[in-house]
Structures are given as structure tokens and as C-alpha cells.
């Protein structure tokens, strides 16, 4: 049988319950460029095109929340030239996407140690977050200078200051940078790597994991739809038995 077209795939995905919150570890930009004999930054540039395409598709099918790992706390240790190029691309992206976010009802959000970002990025991020604050069709969260362990330390300190040693899981959850977002349903990583790389450690507890061989710059609407279709074919059990999940009324 021929592979389904993007339209068929999209119709199939729309006919079943969608994940509310999808997060993506956007990996493989460097390898995409290196296999073409290009500098790594060319891969990052093409990667920002994939961000645009995937955001548009996510919004069109009706995801509530899309979270993109754009720059990790550990990525600061890359060569200065690459970090500088990534910061410039990020600033350009924030400037060029504001109009489309407004047109599509997308609210921009950011998580991570945002005060480590250079001023020119921070200013554009703050402007885009302020401008889109009233939008409610989809929340697009960029993880920038983000680390899951760093988030947990921050949250533990904040929750302990507020609640003392009696703090519980709800207190910790309420102190996470992701507070207010829906539960994470699906975590996607591109480029064939099978690791979490310090992303959303708490939030991954019951997320479905999906690993794609596609390098991030080549990841477009069909690839996202395939990831969602894979999620829709799974049974999530949350510790229960298969029978309990299939017939929840019988306990
Ligand atoms: C992901 O692509 C983008 C960032 C981490 C900023 P990489 O730059 O990690 O690409 P590879 O893994 O070297 O191919
Ligand atoms: C994870 O990718 C971070 C982002 C995608 C932003 P990395 O390329 O930095 O992860 P490792 O080093 O392969 O674990
Ligand atoms: Mg990588």
C-alpha cells in the first residue's frame, strides 16, 4: 500500500483524541549541515524553518501546547561562534514570527534560566511574550538555557521557602517553570538519539516517548503527524492493568 499523503495522515490524526501537550528535542542540525559540507550554523538556520513548519501544523491540528527544546543550559559550553549564531537566529526568529503568532492566536512562553540570555534576545523575547499574552489557541513554549535538573533545584528551593519540609508533589509542581501547562503527553526526539539530555525530567514521568531518525531540519508536517499517530495508537496505563484502562467503570 502506498504511504498516506499528508492530508490523509492529518485527517486520521484529527479523527482521534489528540495529545494536549507535545514537547520536542529538536536535534540533528549540526549533522544535517555536516553531511552537506556546510557550517553547523547552516543547519541551525534550516532548523528554524522546521520550527515554523511544525508550529503551524501543531496549531492547525489543534494541539493545546507545544514545547520546543531550543537551547540547553549545557549548550552554553559550545564554541562561542556557534552560541553567538544561535542567539542571533533566536532573536531573528522572535522578531519575524510575532505577526504570525498574532494571526494564529499563539501565546509565546519561555522556560529556562532566561536571565542568562543576552540582552538583545531577552528584549525580543519579552516583547513577543507581552504582545501575544492574550492569545489562547495554542501555547508555544521555548526552552531556552533550559535544564531539567536546574528547574527542579529552582522549584525545590521555591517550594521549600513557601511550604517548608512539608512540601508535597503538588507544591513542587506548582513551582516548576512549566506550571499552568497541560500534562506532557508526548515527548519527541529527532536525529536517532535516544536520550533525554536534561529535558523536562519531572514532566516526562508518564509521557509517551517517540524517537525519530529524521534530522531536525528535515522534520516537517508529515513527521509531526506520524509522531502524533504513533501516540494515538498506544495504550497509556499510568500504573493500572490493561483491563482497568479498557473498562475504567469496573475499577
Ligand atoms: C540541535 O542540533 C540544536 C541545538 C542543540 C541547539 P545540534 O546542534 O545538537 O545537532 P547535532 O546533534 O550536532 O547534529
Ligand atoms: C539537546 O540536544 C538540546 C537541544 C536540542 C536544544 P544536544 O545535542 O545538546 O544533546 P546531547 O549533547 O546530544 O545530549
Ligand atoms: Mg545534538
From TrEMBL:
Gene3D superfamilies: Decaprenyl diphosphate synthase-like
Annotated residues for binding of Mg(2+): 27, 208
Highest taxon of the lineage: Bacteria
Keywords, alphabetical: Magnesium, Metal-binding, Transferase
Residues bound to substrate: 28-32, 40, 44, 72-74, 76, 78, 189, 195-197
Membrane-spanning residues: none
CDD domains given in the database record: Cis_IPPS (cd00475)
Cofactor note: Binds 2 magnesium ions per subunit.
InterPro entries: UPP_synth-like, UPP_synth-like_CS, UPP_synth-like_sf
Broad enzyme group: transferase
Its biological purpose: Catalyzes the condensation of isopentenyl diphosphate (IPP) with allylic pyrophosphates generating different type of terpenoids.
UniProt subunit comment: Homodimer.
Entry similarity comment: Belongs to the UPP synthase family.
Protein name: Isoprenyl transferase
Organism: Anaeromyxobacter dehalogenans (strain ATCC BAA-258 / DSM 21875 / 2CP-1)
